[in-house]
Amino acid sequence: MDAIGTEERKVYRLVLTGGPCGGKTTGQSRLCTFFENLGWKVFRVPETATILLSGGIKFADLVADEVYKFQENLLRTMIQIENTYFELGRTSTKNCLIICDRGFMDASAYISKEKWDRMMRSNNWNPVELRDNRYNQIIHMVSAANGAEDFYNTEEHSCRSEGVTLARDLDYKAASAWIGHPYFDVIDNSTDFENKVNRMIECVCQKLGIDIGDRLSITSRKVKFLVSGPVPADSAFPAFQDFDVTHHYLQCAGPRVQARLRKRGQNGRWSYIHTIRRPQQHGQSIEVRTQLSHRDYLNMLTQQDDAHFTIYKKRRCFLVNNQYFQMDIYIEPSHPRCKGLILLETYTSLTGDKLKNILPKFLNIVKEVTGQPDYSMFNLSLREDWNNTKKFCYSLHGKTICCHRQADTSSTSNTASTTTPIIATATATTDTGVDRVNETSGNVPDNNVDTLFE
């Protein structure tokens, strides 16, 4: 679920989770202070397991059936506690941030898949509602045992290899529980702890569209890579979640505004998002996402823009090297130029060889295409040939320049037809040959801005 409420008031539901000694407690306190200083109302939902276990329950004393019932009642209690805070957020007169100390899916890390599935069925629970629709964003703070071992130390664990190994295992399980949430961010230990906390706060602000100015150091960005098929067998991937995703672009009332609907789900369960992007005067894009009901989604579909094809994807979400990846496999009946297209995306502060080293080795990654307009979903969905349309948009990291894509007349160009571009059969030596607009030209039409986030 994305931020709800009127344009003047937001209610944002955040889950802060992580492995042992990951900075979750400190991060929660700092995040609370930061948003209170912005004038927001902040609620902190306590960890349900801590509340129950503080009453004298010891797992070592429970038999298997008692453990199962305890986990089931823990989840029922968690839902009720969270709902209490969510209701307070809905009635708040201020913008409201609700920080949940762990969330519903965290419990799946401590129970077998067979028992978890049985629990979901018997309570009529489903992951799309309780993972994707219940919370706006998930942030996982990676354990110090994974990348900052010298700082790993808790009251329960001394700095021994056994303690570190266990912490790493718990950290991975906690992160894997949330694979598939549309806005899931992993904050690793690639920086010192102060910057780790700042990156976490920055990550929340980015999703909310809050301009943080120079209050925090901006370190993380979205990067996009072209992947050459075929997709490896499922066994080559770590734990993953697959989703069916459909995008519809909508008619817009004015220029330089972009609107679209997203339908995302699995096993017949769906979530619906309405996204509007508007550029600021200084060229910075503002994005507002709103959770929709199925009825509202169907009503808004009547505003579909006939200038765009509907985009269909299979989206695979997975974790590699403490990095969360989304791989979009474009499928029919999208525009023919999307045939065979596979794009991999992640958010990271790394660059160069460090960035290269965290990428999945089992994928045939051709090259980085971050910000290249040939790989923008907005442009890929255009019905018209790119050489014959004024709707093609060029934008790169804050430059909101829209342009008519000029036809390539060079006989030596390696750019394929813009109707079916070379991205469909990319190899490691291909290049898109993007025709860049002359920024000093006075013939730049005032059209929709390109998407910076898909």
What features would you describe in this structure?
The protein starts with 10 loop residues before the first strand and ends in a 52-residue tail after the last strand. It has ten helices and 16 strands. It is globular, with a radius of gyration of 23 Å. It folds into two domains: 11-208, Rossmann fold; 221-381, Hypothetical Protein Pfu-838710-001, CATH 2.40.320.10. The protein is α+β, with helices and mostly antiparallel strands and 454 residues long. The protein has helices at 24-37, 48-53, 64-91, 113-122, 127-133, 161-176, 193-208, 294-300, 352-358, 377-380; strands spanning 11-18, 41-45, 96-101, 137-141, 184-187, 221-228, 240-249, 258-266, 269-279, 285-292, 311-320, 323-330, 342-348, 364-368, 393-396, 399-402. Residues 434-454 are annotated as: Disordered.
Give the name of the CATH architecture of the largest domain. Answer: 3-Layer(aba) Sandwich
Quick one: CATH class of the largest domain? Alpha Beta
Strand order across the biggest sheet?
Answer: 10-9-8-7-11-12-13-6-14
Query: How many domain modules?
Result: 2
Instruction: Classify the oligomer.
Output: single chain
Radius of gyration: 23 Å
What's the overall average pLDDT, rounded? 79
Briefly note the CATH topology name of the largest domain: Rossmann fold
What percentage of the residues does DSSP assign to strands (E)?
Answer: 15-25%
CATH superfamily of the largest domain: P-loop containing nucleotide triphosphate hydrolases
Q: Largest beta sheet, briefly?
A: 9 strands, antiparallel
Shape: globular
Order of helices and strands: EHEHHEHHEHEHEEEEEHEEEHEHEE
The helix/strand class is alpha+beta
Poorly predicted runs: 155-162, 396-454
Structure annotation, total helices:
10
Number of strands: 16
Can you give the helix content as a percent range?
25-40%
N/C terminus separation: 17 Å
